Amino acid sequence: MPKIALLTVTHDPLGKNIKLFKKLQKEFENIYTELYVTISDESSITLLEQFQKTKFIVKVIPKKGAAAARREVVSLGLSGHSNYYHYCDLDRLLTWGINHLEELKLLTSNLPSYDYLIFGRSERAMNTHPEEWIETEKITNKICSLELGMNVDITAGSCLFSRESAKYINDYSKEKMTDAEWAMIVHRIAKLEIGYAPVEGLEYHEEINGITRNLSESEKWMSRLKLSSIISETAITIGK
Q1: What angle do CA 211, 129, 72 make, to 5 degrees?
Q2: How far is CA 213 from the centre of its chain?
């Protein structure tokens, strides 16, 4: 069995994912040789306690945004012994596990032939997302695809990478958003091979993947546009 560790992060003050996590916990423990999670200090105490009952190595961190949480979990994962790491935002992982568990098992049953494998969304999975996500992420994905020289969906919140890649990410990651940054660190700085795989499991379900803040329609579009701009800029500048 290949040694693939799970790296995930969560900020869940309302504990909305507790029930689903409890349902899938054993499945995750069977899939991965090691499991690591960083959880914000503003998250539900009940969720934290649930994690602490499992095989997950848990680190509580201050809420400083997704990028900081992702960097923390990479560092945490490097304390273990795995050859490869599957990073996936927890809400994405839960969606994947509850709807496409066999696909998740298949993708983690063999080591990839790349040092960094970007998991993107199939056309069907992409079309489950809100319109403001789809339209703004088209721009991000186009820019990142041009920079990598291959068609990719970079903003789906999941990737699989080698321990060597993890060390480079740990040393060089510092940007506000990591979606394109990590791939560019591996591509331009480490000069390791990047691959791409579209999957069904990274689909969108409002009750799991939706934001908890109340925003107007125009605010939703503006928020996604800002994210697109930040991620796109990192795709162009990192490692040059």
Answers
A1: 50
A2: 21
CA distance 96 to 42: 25
Residue 225 parent element (H or E): helix 217-237
Percent of the chain with pLDDT over 70: 99
Query: How do strand 4-10 and strand 84-88 relate by DSSP bridges?
Result: parallel
Rounded to 5 degrees, φ, ψ at 71 are -65, -40
> What letters, b where the CB count within 10 A reaches 16 and e where it falls short, cover 48-77?
bebbeebebbbbebeeeebbbbbbbbbbbb
123-154: pLDDT as tens digits: 999 999 999 999 999 999 999 999 999 999 99
| Distance from C-alpha of 204 to C-alpha of 100, rounded to nearest angstrom | 12
Task: Quote the CA–CA distance of 84 and 166 in Å, as a whole number.
Answer: 8
List of the chain residues with pLDDT < 70:
1, 212
Contact 224, 139 (CB under 8 A): no
**Residue 8: which H helix or E strand, with range?**
strand 4-10
CA distances to 2, 31, 103, 141 from 107, rounded to whole Å, are 11, 10, 6, 22
| Beta bridge partner(s), residue 96 | none
Sheet holding 34-40, edge to edge: 57-61, 34-40, 4-10, 84-88, 158-162, 116-121, 194-199
